[in-house]
Description:
The chain has helices spanning 3-17, 22-28, 33-40, 48-58, 62-65, 70-88, 90-102. The chain has 105 residues and is an all-alpha fold. The protein has two domains: 3-65, lambda repressor-like DNA-binding domains (434 Repressor (Amino-terminal Domain), Orthogonal Bundle), CATH 1.10.260; 70-102, no CATH class. The protein has seven helices and no strands. Helix 6 packs across helix 7 (90-102). The radius of gyration is 18 Å and the shape is elongated.
Amino acid sequence: MSIKKKLGNRIREIRTNRSLTQEALAEKVNMSAKSLSQIELGNNFVSAETLEEICLALNITPKALFDFEYSEITKENSIKEIVDKLENNPNLLKIIYKIVSVLDY
């Protein structure tokens, strides 16, 4: 995957985690939603100035923005931590089982 696509994915990931729409983030960084969409899709790359504005709007460092492996590692670790907690807490496992068994899926 190209760096443009990785950066675009990371911007989208952080934006959605912050519950921001493309329109809201685009407004904060003074660009059109269409331009932001092209960046998130990896079709366009950002200037240094725009990158700085995105980081400020998302309240992150540029390092966090370029930490492409962060989300994958975090997701794997989170799942592992949850499973570990369930294994060590049978009462919690029973409660979760009751909740899941009621769901209609």
